[in-house]
Amino acid sequence: MRKTFLFMDTIVNKVDAKGRVSLPSDYRAIVKELSTEIVCYRSLTSPCIEGCAEELLEKIAADMETSLDFFSQTQDDLTNLIFGDARRFSFDSTGRILLSEKLLKHAQITDTAVFVGKGRKFQIWNPENWAKEEKRIRQEIMKNRPSLSMKGGN
Amino acid sequence: MRKTFLFMDTIVNKVDAKGRVSLPSDYRAIVKELSTEIVCYRSLTSPCIEGCAEELLEKIAADMETSLDFFSQTQDDLTNLIFGDARRFSFDSTGRILLSEKLLKHAQITDTAVFVGKGRKFQIWNPENWAKEEKRIRQEIMKNRPSLSMKGGN
DNA sequence: CTTACTCTTATGGTATAACATGGGATTTTT
DNA sequence: AAAAATCCCATGTTATACCATAAGAGTAAG
Questions:
Q1: Do the Cβ atoms of A114 and A124 come closer than 8 Å?
Q2: Taking the model in full, what pTM does it have?
Q3: CB within 8 Å of A98: residues ≥ 6 apart
Q4: Would you tell me which of A10, A24, B3, B117 could form a disulfide with B7, CB atoms 3.0–4.6 Å apart?
Q5: A127 φ, ψ (degrees, to nearest 5)
Q6: Which residues contact A36 (CB under 8 A, 6 or more apart)?
Q7: pLDDT bucket at B98, cuts 50 / 70 / 90
Q8: Percent of chain B that is helix, strand, coil (3-state, to 5)
């Protein structure tokens, strides 16, 4: 069976004064498995940091090259937004990454970070914000439960 | 496995009196990795400098040879503009390139340059202009968000 | 069931290397 | 000869690699 590479679980780690955090070991395993790197950027929609394997961005770049027009406005905007914000974060021998000021500020993270798995991606939250968000999501799901169906995608 | 070569992140560097700027080290790494050179030209659509690996222009040229649009007027015009404007910019031992007057003027850059990653390409902006542009893009994207379906999901 | 041991992971501190940037020297161009 | 471009050295700053300790999970033995 093929090894999985899904970001899962919710892990709470300390952020030190320099902005260093241990990347959960499971996440590190994925990076090694894919021989890729972790890439993080500000979430477009939430006050949190979003991360994924660089491999995924590679795919996006490749898709754009072929699907959209080289000179299209939308492509221009999207690439600016995604790649302009994303940055590679490689971890040291002890498994830590150094988060940037920009990201920490966006996610309002000071001394504690919550890693939340999302499959191909993951998010990093401020603990309080995540608590609220999780509650919101659960309520939302319960409300819309009857109309949720598996569409075959995703 | 193949190493990735995506221009990412947003980096602010000083431009000295001679017009020298440090090319962000990640960008330099890509150049070395691909054993190519950096090529820059005036953006066709924005007041900024656009850059990419010379390799990419090679690819575009190759694509056009075989493309159905071989005789397309628009495509002809666009490539004329880009190839006519593009120039190689190699960096010195300290990693700096010397931007030309023409480019600096087009991007209204004087003493500070903002490098914005775009995947296979990157842009160089005047700080104020980029701030405005980033704002514009974020608004635009948020407005059209529902209709944007990326394969990477969101 | 409890205790001791081992291994992995997280975290704090420090040393080292890499980078951006200023200044000057040398070379090339016109 | 003057101007412009390229190269080289010096420095402050920051990120990264490294070492050491602590904490926790899991395992094996008593």
A1: yes
A2: 0.89
A3: A18, A19, A20, A89
A4: B117
A5: -55, -45
A6: A53, A54, A55, B1, B4
A7: very high
A8: 45, 25, 30
- The DSSP code sequence of A5-37 is --B-SEEEEEB-TT-EEEPPHHHHHHHHHHT--
Q: By mean pLDDT, which of A69-78, B48-57, B98-107, B144-153 is the weakest?
A: B144-153
Q: What DSSP assignment string belongs to B15-51?
A: B-TT-EEEPPHHHHHHHHHTT--EEEEE-SSSSSEEE
How distant is the Cα of B41 from the closest Cα of chain A, in angstroms?
14
State which protein residues have CB closer than 7 Å to strand D: A 18, 20, 90, 92-94, 98, 100; B 18-20, 90, 92-94, 98, 100
d(Cα B150, Cα A81) in Å, to the nearest integer? 13
CA distances from B127 to A88, A127, B65, B133 (A): 22, 33, 38, 10
Q: Which amino acid makes up residue B22? A: S
- Phi first, then psi: give them for residue A151, nearest 5 degrees: -90, 5
In whole angstroms, give the CA distance from residue A86 to residue A79.
Answer: 10
DSSP state of B149: -
DSSP string, A71-125: T-HHHHHHHHHHHHH-EEE---TTSEEE--HHHHHHTT-SSEEEEEEEBTEEEEE
Are B103 and B42 in contact by the 8 Å Cβ rule? The answer is yes
d(CA B11, CA B23): 9
